[in-house]
Amino acid sequence: MLLKVLGTAAGGGVPQWNCACPECSGARAHPRRRRRHASLAVRAAEGRWYVVNATPDIADQIESCPELHPGPEPRRTPLAGVILTDAELDHTLGIARLREADRLELLTTGAVRDAVLGRQHLGELLSPYTDLTWCELPTSGRPEPLDADSTVHISAVPLSGKRPRYAVAVPAGPGDDGHWVSALRLTDRATGRTAVYAPALGTWPDALQHAVADADCVILDGTFWDDDEPRRTGISARTATAMGHLPVDGPDGTARRLASLPARCLYTHLNNTNPLVDPTAPQHKVLTRMGLEVAADGMEITL
Ligand code: MLT
Ligand code: MN
Ligand code: ZN
């Protein structure tokens, strides 16, 4: 299995356009610290790739990843579809950027489908431009091949019913299965190796523990270093957990849980307030001592 990390930042990116915090200013001064919105490319088969989450950076992310470049015919793209872990704007606005596609297949849950393809989001807006089709992600009990010829099998691990802010008051649609946020479990049947991708994680359900227990690689929500970070930095009145993101550090942090796993574990979806966006921050040593990593834009992971 081949994975390419297309971006590792939470909503806003690093730097965020309207922010002069130390981390955003640091990324302006040191362009190598810049991070695009969190996204992952998964190779289904030779020349066929899926992108997990369509971010506002998707066109630049495609350009920076040669495997995703079109060709040899002028309008042939290796991008077979977009998998959505949730309906947040930082994971779905890029669908509008892909409107030049003849058709675009989205793999996700019923709740996310209703939000993205419904009236309140992109469905009506994009219908004159492209044909958005939808395919339901199988759940962890019955993984399915990503693509007809693919040895990579995929399943969704439902994590929570946390809705994006724009959908908080929208009545449940006919397809709403309550699965607003999922982790993905990807297994290559040719190698037997498994990756779990969970860029939005507000709770740690038993199903997730089960999904990561025998995984070879786990790429997880690293939005905030500690639970108080959003309040301390003034970006929110809520804690990290209340915002739907378990912190990395602390008694209920994800680092302790990840450190006990045999998998290679990397953090992604870093908010621009997270000290980890500064490569000189002491928090990196804490993670290194625990055997954990921070994912980098452009990273290639072969399993
Ligand atoms: C999140 O990850 O919690 C959301 O993307 C926040 C947002 O609305 O940008
Ligand atoms: Mn986000
Ligand atoms: Zn900032």
UniProtKB/TrEMBL annotation:
Domain Metallo-beta-lactamase: 48-267
A Pfam family: Lactamase_B_2
UniProt xrefs under Gene3D superfamilies: Ribonuclease Z/Hydroxyacylglutathione hydrolase-like (3.60.15.10)
UniProt entry keywords in alphabetical sequence: PQQ biosynthesis, Transport
Record pathway: Cofactor biosynthesis; pyrroloquinoline quinone biosynthesis
HAMAP family membership: PQQ_syn_PqqB (MF_00653)
Similarity section: Belongs to the PqqB family.
Main function: May be involved in the transport of PQQ or its precursor to the periplasm.
Protein name: Coenzyme PQQ synthesis protein B
UniProt lineage: Bacteria, Bacillati, Actinomycetota, Actinomycetes, Kitasatosporales
